[in-house]
């Protein structure tokens, strides 16, 4: 394909044909641990291996299976995207955001980006969910790099003032009153951060740190979708509470929180 937008439109058409859904309302990208919780939303009526769609890449990270689940929930057509890919797997920014662009091309006007993140705030421990208020992109790249978007799309100089929709955040806080807000700092990974890097992140105003989400949010906002970000604090970031970090800990935290994550999604999706 000549550009990533045409590729996303092609994949969206394939998704519509395979799922039988003319237009989705909401797309939810499931981060580490969130897939198990999403089972609380009910049985999907369609499951598609994401790698069967044009431009999609099979993920290589444990806990990230590549599937798109279609289901009806709270009067909405919902697509659950399981198996995001990351820069650290050797992929380009346009490949990382391709699933989000595809679901928006398939009709989704709201995108919920979930992840597992390291927590910098000692008062918000593992197992808590934080609503992302804003982000700091230190990945060194952007989905807007490269040729300008084709005619019919917004400028590459996309305004990120309201990147994480204030209206969506307000609706979520109205439905679930005990969630904190935070700022998510995205790095490339795959190594975990050093205590000095976490201290830098704290000085910059971050309360969460991870290796995903920031590029997807930019791509979704460029396409005029409303963006909501939800981070499961899976562990304290390096130097916050002492001890070594490992990916198994992230997966275990997600599994332990699955029931509460499912209950949270069940309360959030109806108000979006």
Summary, kept brief:
This protein has 272 residues and is of the alpha/beta class.
Comma- or semicolon-separated keywords:
single chain; 272 residues; alpha/beta; Rossmann fold; 5-stranded mixed β-barrel; 9 helices
Task: Please tell me about this protein's structure.
Helices cover 31% and strands 23% of the residues. With 272 residues, it is of the alpha/beta class. It has a single domain (4-271), classed as Nucleoside phosphorylase domain (Rossmann fold). A five-stranded mixed beta barrel has the order 5-8-7-6-9. α1 packs across α4 (98-105). The chain is globular, with a radius of gyration of 17 Å.
Q: Topology of this protein?
A:
Elements: H1 4-19, E1 26-30, H2 34-38, E2 46-49, E3 67-73, E4 76-82, H3 93-96, H4 98-105, E5 110-119, E6 129-137, H5 166-175, E7 180-186, H6 195-204, E8 208-210, H7 214-222, E9 226-236, H8 247-256, H9 258-268
Parallel strand pairs: 1-4, 1-5, 5-9, 6-7, 7-8
Antiparallel strand pairs: 2-3, 3-4, 5-8, 6-9
Helix pairs in contact: 1-4
User: What is the beta-strand fraction?
Assistant: 15-25%
Indicate the CATH topology.
Rossmann fold
* SSE series: HEHEEEHHEEHEHEHEHH
List low-pLDDT spans: none
Shape: globular
Instruction: Report the radius of gyration as a whole number of Å.
Output: 17 Å
Q: What is the number of domains?
A: 1
- Oligomeric form: single chain
Strands across the major sheet, in which order? 5-8-7-6-9
Distance between the termini: 33 Å
Task: Please give the CATH class.
Answer: Alpha Beta
CATH superfamily: Nucleoside phosphorylase domain
């Amino acid at each position: 394909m000549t550009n990533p937008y045409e590729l996303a439109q092609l994949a969206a058409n394939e998704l519509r044909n395979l799922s039988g859904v003319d237009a989705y309302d909401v797309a939810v990208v499931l981060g580490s641990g969130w897939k198990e919780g999403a089972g609380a939303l009910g049985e999907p009526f369609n499951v598609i291996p994401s790698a069967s769609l044009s431009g999609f890449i099979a993920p290589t990270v444990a806990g990230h299976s590549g599937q798109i689940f279609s289901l009806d929930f709270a009067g909405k057509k919902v697509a659950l995207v399981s198996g995001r890919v990351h820069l650290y797997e050797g992929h380009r920014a346009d490949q990382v955001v391709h699933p989000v662009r595809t679901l928006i091309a398939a009709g989704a006007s709201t995108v919920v980006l979930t992840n597992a993140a390291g927590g910098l705030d000692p008062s918000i421990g593992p197992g808590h969910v934080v609503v992302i208020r804003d982000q700091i992109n230190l990945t060194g790249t952007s989905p807007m790099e490269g040729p300008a978007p084709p005619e019919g799309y917004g400028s590459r100089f996309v305004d990120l003032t309201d990147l994480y929709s204030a209206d969506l955040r307000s609706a979520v806080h109205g439905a679930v009153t005990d969630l904190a807000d935070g700022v998510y700092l995205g790095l490339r990974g795959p190594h975990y951060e050093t205590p000095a890097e976490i201290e830098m992140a704290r000085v910059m105003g971050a309360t969460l740190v991870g290796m995903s989400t920031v590029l997807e949010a930019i791509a979704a906002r460029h396409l005029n979708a409303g963006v909501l970000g939800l981070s499961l604090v899976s562990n304290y970031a390096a130097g916050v509470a002492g001890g070594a970090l490992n990916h198994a800990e992230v997966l275990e935290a997600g599994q332990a929180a699955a029931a509460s994550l499912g209950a949270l999604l069940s309360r959030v999706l109806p108000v979006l």
